[in-house]
Amino acid sequence: MDADVAIGLLRTMWRIRCFEERVVQLKRSLQVHGLIHLSIGGEGVAAAVCGRLRDDDAVYSGHRAHGHAIAKGAPIDRLMAELMGRSDGVCRGLGGSMHLVDAEHGFMGATGVVGGNLPLALGTALTHHLQEADRVTVVFFGDGAVQAGHFNESINLAALWRLPVIFVCENNGFAEFTSREEHSTIERVSDVVAPYGFERTTVKGSDVPAVWEAFGGFLDAARGGEGPFLLECLTYRRRGHYEGDQQKYRDAAAEQEWAERDPVAQLTRRALDEGWIDDEAAAAIEAEAGEAIEEAVRFARESPFPEPAITAELVYAR
Amino acid sequence: MAREIPYIAAVQEAIRVEMERDPSVVFYGQDVAPSDEDPLVQAFGRERVRVSPISETAEIGMAVGLALAGYRPVVELLMAEFMLVAMNQVVNEAPRLRYMSGGQVKVPAVFKAGYGFTAGWAGQHTGSIYGMFMGFPGLKIALPSTPADAKGLMATAIRDDNPVCYLINYLLVLEHGDVPEGEYTVPFGEAAVRRSGSDVTIVATGWTVGRALAAAETLAGEGIEAEVIDPRTLNPLDTATILSSVEKTGHLVLVDQGTRHGGASAVIAAEVAEHGFTSLKAPIAQVTALDVTVPYSEPMEAFVLPNEEKIAGKVRQVLGEAPVAA
Amino acid sequence: MQELDNDRLVWMFTQMLRIREFEERVKRTFEDHPGVIRGHTHLADGAEASIVGSLATMAPGDQLMATYRCHGYPIALGTDTKSIMAEIYGRKSGLCGGYGGSMHLVDPSRGFLGTSGIVGQGIPQATGAAWGAQLRGQGQVVLGFFGDGASKQGAFHESLNLASLWKLPIVYVMENNNYNVSTRSEQEDANAANGEPLSVKAAAYSMPGVTVDGGDPIAVYETVGAAADRARKGEGPTLVESKVYRLSAHGNIIAPPGVPLHYPEHEAITTFGNREEYEAALRGDPVPRFRARLVEQGALAPERADEIAQEVHEEMDAAVKFALDDPYPEPEAAARADFVYA
Ligand SMILES: Cc1ncc(C[n+]2csc(CCOP(=O)(O)OP(=O)(O)O)c2C)c(N)n1
Ligand SMILES: Cc1ncc(C[n+]2csc(CCOP(=O)(O)OP(=O)(O)O)c2C)c(N)n1
Ligand SMILES: [Mg+2]
Ligand SMILES: [Mg+2]
Q: Is any ligand 2 atom within 6 A of the Cβ of residue C147?
């Protein structure tokens, strides 16, 4: 971790944060519709993981995908247009928040079915293995996906075939409105894969340098064709499960607690302490991100809704 | 040059030919070549021919991921029912990803399985469950009824840029027929007219094509000329050929090894009722399996299934019926 | 756990012999009466000790669920072998009236809640039955049987997680015969490929995992019994890996109607050309091994063992004869609406 890296990560995190905070407003004013899951509080994982990847590395995500897409390099204006259902959206308005895809930047897709992306990632990792390429596949999933059968099927196969895939679990301790201890006796996801004998580690997701380091080690090995790996990041879900969630099932965190768990605040503090940035620069990063998001919203608003007729040709590839 | 080979060999041949032709074709599944002596392993190596665990969700999902990344996987699933434990991947991931991505990605994967093994395999291994896949736009369904089609449809399935449920009928595996050598494809969405006739149209798939043809022979002895149409793929479905046949004959009998409700023949009946109503001189009739789980014991199993007599009987009934009021 | 006195040991031996003899009759039917058995049968020869050792732990009200490889359980539970054979022959007096066949035996009156022909799918069902036992609160347990291959099915993972979380009274008995049809475990299982026992998977669910010699009925009894005791006390599930060798092929050959069916040789030979592996397994055959042990320790006189063998032989003669003579069901019975919907 140095100044350049930290500044890059802060930029990405702020873009995610501003994007999602803006989505909150747009959702309330019904300009974004459908089911929206935000990753506020977890930006550090997206930034540190995707920040190390190349466009030809593949990333899969799930229902909480905005941050991963942004960090992987998907254009924010087209992401915003997608959320607003416009024709210039990354998926031409056909996918929406839970189904973002930007193949050009290796964001191979988000799926709305919990854990449905895990086996897909194996397939892509297998192609990289077959091509003897130094490309790596990363799949993001939540702690809730770990109890699903396809998780275990995927873990066994990845281990058996030693695929160059990095499983990145964002363990926020909740699946929807249920806390982890009601879903499993095993607190740490990295312990669930213990029997399969591959490298795994758990870090605090709010400690962005730790995520950066841990992921970097796995990535180097995976580039060399090794695998699989599991990186568990303990994250904090600042907002409800979805936008509109009343959150009666948990106590709101005190502001103090949030500040400790906020990856953006933490990395900013570190950067200030190290002298990598000053207060002014910190404020500028935030402001830049905010402006970029406003620009994205303008772009999205100007983009027309798709013609209803475009849909038929997309059902089958020709 | 064509030569006679069994249906099952034709399927394998298509996979081999396509693997030779295109290095992006990979083939895997349970018990696919566990021995290194296996000819496919010998020909293409362990990387492209793999044996996988009994993990259908991972096996099928992995095919989707391979396809997204530019490969053309063929997954051996043995029996169509085994896809049911991985229903999310078959119907909710594979066929939808292209559409939801606004056309950015494609999923050229083949889910190869057998169905309809009404040979005493009892309730969980005998289903003809293709009808349920028809409700998922983006998913193609091929049902070869002859060795030549078995080869040609497999080759087309592999070359197709979409997920395909390629379903062999287990009752046909040892049927012999002429199969062209080398590369050979059969287009999707083109029904085959297996027999022409002017009195009644019979639409049948898979194993029931043979039963329908046998019934047609019997009926010919009675002066009834049946036209037998095999759609070959249910999705895309060649409704044009069926409709023009019905226009000629005015009568339609649908044969389906699957159950009656929610099945393929019900979909075809609806298409003809909507678009061919004025051609019909009598109500459409269906000869399907009964709406029960296939029983084990032989006499009960036979009772449940369509057969030549039931088809011929239904044709006679349809031809004897009063015209549909226009 | 009950002490195994001589009577109980002899009972166990008798059940093992009955299962073996039954399976041999099923196999022989393909030659002696071609066409009588249709579809696919899977034999339990080689797993008798594991089955009987497990079932010997059952107390009244305990239940079990299993797979398509299911003939052995009802035999040991006391279901009439005539009705089991009649089911396999597709006859009217069959255990399931000819509707289910070899893969779908069920005898709820004896706690045998049924099987799934789909790999792994019985595991969640057994788990649900264990929840029922927990709700009843009478200290009953469920035994959930499945193969080694089934542990790669998502349902395994989902079920074991839940059972551990809810401390369900279930013993998961994995009969590890090291093959899924013709695939060897180390070709499809990451643990096996690492040379580890499959019981290590239990750690993912904070559940005890034990491996036992499934050819030794007493060892199985003690292992499954300890796990069952634990479950009865409300301490939750256990994964028992019972190592067995299946002495027949996975099943009879698969062929369309009209082609005579038979049992091929074991896949060790047909797929891998490894006759030695198979012959070594035959040398360790659990049935004669247990007999020798009981005779040696004086629990069973050789003459009595011969008598038992003779009785079992006669029982199975009668089962085959009964099943052959029994009529087929009426074809129209296939349409019984009260079987489609309760
Ligand atoms: C197979 C499936 N079951 C249920 C749901 C409904 N669902 C959507 S998100 C979610 C919780 C997922 O929790 P987790 O994986 O921890 O991700 P998080 O939302 O915490 O980021 C559930 C249950 C679903 N989408 N798919
Ligand atoms: C979901 C599913 N996939 C595949 C099959 C086909 N099949 C039947 S038995 C079997 C092998 C199972 O191996 P294992 O679980 O070890 O049990 P064993 O037969 O060895 O007792 C397979 C692959 C099936 N019945 N169900
Ligand atoms: Mg979560
Ligand atoms: Mg096995």
A: yes
Q: Does B275 participate in catalysis according to the annotation? A: no
Tell me, yes or no, whether B242 and B140 share the same domain.
no
How many beta-carbon pairs below 8 A join chains B and C?
A: 150
ipTM for the complex shown: 0.94
Residue C70 C-alpha, separation from nearest chain A C-alpha, in angstroms: 25
B324 assigned to some structural domain: no
Q: Please name the residue that has the structure tokens 């400690």.
A: A207
Q: Is the Cβ of A312 closer than 8 Å to some Cβ of chain B? A: no
Residue of higher predicted confidence among A307 and C296: C296
Q: Is residue B187 part of a domain?
A: no
At C226-243, the pLDDT tens digits run 999 999 999 999 999 999
Is B119 among the domain residues?
A: yes
B197 and B176 in a common domain:
no
**Domain with A57 in it: what CATH number?**
3.40.50.970
Q: Find the CATH number of the domain harbouring B198.
A: 3.40.50.920
Number of compact structural domains in chain A: 1
Domain with A121 in it:
3-298
Closest CA to A268 of A257, A279, A258: A279
| Mean pLDDT, residues C13-26 taken together | 98
pLDDT in tens, chain B (326 residues): 899 999 999 999 999 999 999 999 999 999 999 999 999 999 999 999 999 999 999 999 999 999 999 999 999 999 999 999 999 999 999 999 999 999 999 999 999 999 999 999 999 999 999 999 999 999 999 999 999 999 999 999 999 999 999 999 999 999 999 999 999 999 999 999 999 999 999 999 999 999 999 999 999 999 999 999 999 999 999 999 999 999 999 999 999 999 999 999 999 999 999 999 999 999 999 999 999 999 999 999 999 999 999 999 999 999 997 665 44
| Cα(A285)–Cα(A283) distance, integer angstroms | 5
- Of B208, B305, B206, B301, which Cα lies nearest the Cα of B255? B208
- Contact yes or no for B140 and A111 at CB 8 A: no
Length of chain B: 326
- CA of C120 from ligand 4 middle (Å) equals 11
In a domain, A287, yes or no: yes
B50 & B82 share domain: yes
Q: Kindly state the tokens that stand for A244.
A: 């509109």
Q: Is the CB of C45 under 6 A from ligand 2?
A: no
Amino acid at site C273? G
Mutate which of C30, C37, C38, C180 to disrupt the B interface (most B C-beta within 10 Å)? C38
Same domain, B165 and B211: no
Is residue C103 within 8 A of residue C22, CB to CB? The reply is no
User: Coil, helix or strand for A261?
Assistant: helix
Instruction: Report which of C35, C22, C90 is spatially closest to residue C331, judged by C-alpha positions.
Output: C90
Cα(A71) to centroid of ligand 3, in Å? 20
Q: Is there an atom of ligand 2 within 6 Å of B100 CB?
A: no
Residue A306 counted as domain residue: no
Spatial distance between the Cα atoms of C282 and C46, rounded to a whole number of angstroms? 9
Residues with Cβ within 6 A of ligand 1?
A 63-64, 112-114, 142-145, 172, 174-176, 241
User: Does residue A307 lie in a domain region?
Assistant: no
Domain boundary among B180, B212, B233: B180
CB-based contacts of C45: which residues, under 8 Å, 6+ apart?
A: C19, C20, C23, C24, C246, C247, C248
pLDDT digit string, tens, across residues B83-133? 999 999 999 999 999 999 999 999 999 999 999 999 999 999 999 999 999
Residue among B35, B171, B297 minimizing CB distance to C90: B297
Which residues form the domain of B40?
2-180
Q: What is the dotted CATH code of the domain comprising C6-325?
A: 3.40.50.970
Of B180, B201, B216, the residue that ends a domain is B180
For chain C, the domains span 6-325
Q: Strand, coil or helix: what is C302?
A: helix
- Which residue in chain A has the smallest CA separation from C192? A160
